[in-house]
Specification:
Keywords: Hydrolase, Signal. The protein has a single domain, classed as Alpha/Beta hydrolase fold, catalytic domain (Rossmann fold, 3-Layer(aba) Sandwich), CATH 3.40.50. The chain has ten helices and nine strands. The strands form two sheets. Strands 2-1-3-4-8-9 form a six-stranded parallel β-sheet, sandwiched between helices. A three-stranded antiparallel β-sheet has the order 5-6-7, with no helix packed on it. The longest helix has 17 residues. The chain is globular.
Amino acid sequence: MPLHRIRPALMLASLLALAAPATASAEPIKNIVLVHGAWVDASGWKPVYDILKKKGFRVSMVQEPETSFQDDVAAAKRVLDMQDGPTILVGHSYGGSIITEAGVHPKVAGLVYIAAHAPDVGEDEGELGKKMPSVLAKTPGAIEKTPDGYTYLNPELFPKLFAPDLPREQAEFESRSQVLAKAEVFSTPLTAAAWKAKPSWGIVAGNDQIINPDLERFYYQRAKAPFIVIEGASHSVYESHPTQVASVIEEAARKVAEPGN
């Protein structure tokens, strides 16, 4: 082919390459499953749900019965079975133990711990909590128990211990709408630790009275999970700071979708 015909072709190819849009980054994972902790239900996730839904995520919440650890893990897996693809599994407080066990589910691509427990195989959060006691553990009469072995947080102390950064009326309502948790859920050893194989992220609630913030740091550092500390946040951080919580979940959804992860 004559040289004068090759050059225009090369120039056209170069111009087309310049005009072409840059390679788009991978779309974040769209499925999010949220798992609540003990003594509350999934309605507390509403502020986080609203933010994520507006950003195009498909958000589901687990309503675990808190009748046994096995029942709660089964409830989480049931919702995971319903997802249509890779999923970010998020747990708050005792929900962290649930996602640690349930997170081995094949649809789980990543884990996010929100002021949460993250035991290892053979560990339980009750024993770990004794090594780094929280304000709750040091408060006489804070945890009550029914004759048939279900626990709840003293309603008079709930606003101070669980939700001091929520509006008082909201905290009082939550104190009177508790889901009673079978005592054994806190002392059941785990048989799986998904954070060993799945990428994980965490949030430390800086003013957590229910779980010692140092214990939260220990969990996340052991799991090699990047985490943020929300200073002044209570155990109800997912309700009082939903924007920051949703941002960490969104970051996890984006990171696990990147090539090589």
